[in-house]
Specification:
The protein is an alpha+beta fold. The chain is 26% helix and 22% strand. A hairpin with a 7-residue loop joins β4 and β5.
Length: 161
Amino acid sequence: MLEPLRQGLPPLDPSAVSNAASCALPARYEAVREARQFTRRTLDQWDIGDRFDDVCLVVSELVTNALRHGLPSGNGRTPEQIPPVRLHLMRWTERLVCAVRDPSHDSPVARDSDDFSAESGRGLFLVDSFADSWGWHPLAGTLNGKVVWALFRLQLQQSAE
């Protein structure tokens, strides 16, 4: 079991964020594609291309994990007014954070697997491999659940002189 992690996160001071965007995702697996499309549009607007493939892979894994492990099973559905999963993208000058919120209080579990041909169970391994750092923390206040985040360092664009 992973302990809640906050280290490596940029300061959460809203005035320090250069750009931020978020989208609610429905409780169905098509939401993974919607999350990738949202990420592509957002990163294009922010003119961030150097880490695009890595970011999209990580977003896909975080959203898949939230849908697979973070939602109540059976009849314990969340109210339709409250989207159960939400993707947040936040950009600082040299950092990008992708954060996925879900209603579960269970910590993410990284599986030890030497079977790299397996079709599941490698999500957090991929997140760890492609992001510069990642972690999770429980939500505070009136929100229930947790946020799993991944941080990417961005290269500053050199201006042509």
